[in-house]
Amino acid sequence: MSLRSFVTSALTLFWSLLTTVVVTAFCLMLVVMAIQVISRYTLGLAVPWTDEVSRYLFLAEIFLGSVLALRYQEHIRVTVVTDLLPARVAHLVAALADLIGIVVLLMLMGGAWNMMERTAGVFASTFRMSFSYVYLMQFIAALLMVILLVDQCQRHLRGKPVISPAKPWSD
């Protein structure tokens, strides 16, 4: 097995695992919220951990799902102006947008790192999980998006199209 095919296989596995994590977080969030609603309105019991667990699963879904949305070029875009530009100028504007996104994500990573340090000893009120994990997830998602945007930016600067890989859910 060549290095190139190994890296390709590893990346394919990584993106499959990330997709599985996001879908699993969504499904678990639905189950936990169903437990919350059923226990509260049918049984008259409040299950205190369901609120926090569903919130953490929602955050995992949003942060990690945004990485997948960026990878598959699924973020919302308004392209009225850029569609009117010549191809070379459109690529430069897209590269500038990528650079702005990278700067914002780097600032987000700095804030997430700071909050991880500050909340390392702070735990959820209904179960033993440090708040720092929420910020770790935010940090990892921002880092992955920076990597994707750097690749996307260099493609724009070279005048190459940014091609979205095949979506595993579109088969």
TrEMBL record:
Summary of subunit composition and partner proteins: The complex comprises the extracytoplasmic solute receptor protein and the two transmembrane proteins.
Organism: Modicisalibacter xianhensis
TM spans (from-to): 12-35, 55-72, 92-113, 133-150
Localization (cell): Cell inner membrane
Annotated ranges, domain Tripartite ATP-independent periplasmic transporters DctQ component: 29-158
Family stated for the protein in its record: Belongs to the TRAP transporter small permease family.
Annotated membrane topology: Multi-pass membrane protein
GO terms of molecular function: transmembrane transporter activity
GO cellular component terms listed in the entry, alphabetical order: plasma membrane
InterPro entries assigned: DctQ (IPR055348), TRAP_DctQ (IPR007387)
Physiological role: Part of the tripartite ATP-independent periplasmic (TRAP) transport system.
Record-level GO BP terms: C4-dicarboxylate transport
Descriptive protein name: TRAP transporter small permease protein
Keywords per UniProt: Cell inner membrane, Cell membrane, Membrane, Transmembrane, Transmembrane helix, Transport
Predominant localisation class: membrane
